[in-house]
Design a protein that fits this description.
The protein is of the alpha/beta class and 325 residues long. It folds into two domains: 145 residues, Alpha-Beta Complex (Quinone Oxidoreductase, Chain A, domain 1); 145 residues, Rossmann fold (3-Layer(aba) Sandwich), CATH 3.40.50. Helix content is 32%, strand content 26%. It is built from ten helices and 15 strands. The longest helix has 21 residues.
Length: 325
Amino acid sequence: MRAIRQHRFGGPDELVLEEVPDLVPETGQVRITVRAAGVHLLDTMLREGGSGPFGVSELPMTPGREAAGTIDLVADDVDRTWIGRHVVVHLGAASGGYASQVVAPVGTVIPLSDGLDAAAAVAMVGTGRTALGILEEADLRADDVVLVTAAAGGLGTLLVQAAAAAGCTVVGAAGGEAKLDLARSMGASIVADYLEPDWSATVRTALGVRQVTVTLDGVGGTVGRTAFELIGPGGRMVLFGYTAGAPMPLETADLFARGVAVSAAIGPRLFARPGGIQRLAELAVERLEAGAWTPVVARFPLAEAAGAHRALSDRRTTGKVVLVP
């Protein structure tokens, strides 16, 4: 089998395609021939030696925690009718997704309809489940004005679609005209380029007498702070990351001044929710199967994993980044 291997922490060039022995499923496991593997911004941090939700990665490693494909081998104690099934899986604390094969416990795989796009399914099992957690926290209503930052990203495009489907007025903030066009196509009726210093004025002018009631922010930093300032009195803000590299600066006095409620929909809050995070992944896949969500996918060949990391870090991608073995 082929796999991306990393022997040292460092830049994208540490990701090297190698031939390694085929995997053999152990008790309770299935082996999946991978058709698509998800790439997450967290992967770039782990590649550099950062500590993610499961701690610092052990080297050497094969990165990646999201994969979709076809089961081709099962352990002796697993029902053989699983062989040939199309599935998607989140590997959790295990890594190994950037490869032509992965193994996973049979209880964690999610069956897919024949013909369903594997790359789209990969977008659901990780990014989609997070989007559902954010939406549960946001509790959107049809009369909300919802501001989504990074509206052209993997999460952002799903959140824009969901808010528009709920009847909300959606404001999509992103960097550059191409990404603004994508946000519009997803359902944003107002867009603003947050690379421009006066982007908040663009939003206020477009809204007129209305104000933002909900902000969904995964950018943080100065963009997140500007998004917070756009929220009207009594509004709410859901945080789910800070891709800008630093959290949004915020004092408790800021919350008291305008009565804005701020909550976080990642980390322990997401993983400790009733029903568990696996159920969120299953629900996200159900949305895909029903045609309720159309994930935007940027595909890279497995051999170009380093290029995928560079493009993601440089904010040159839209939607979910996926490797295709």
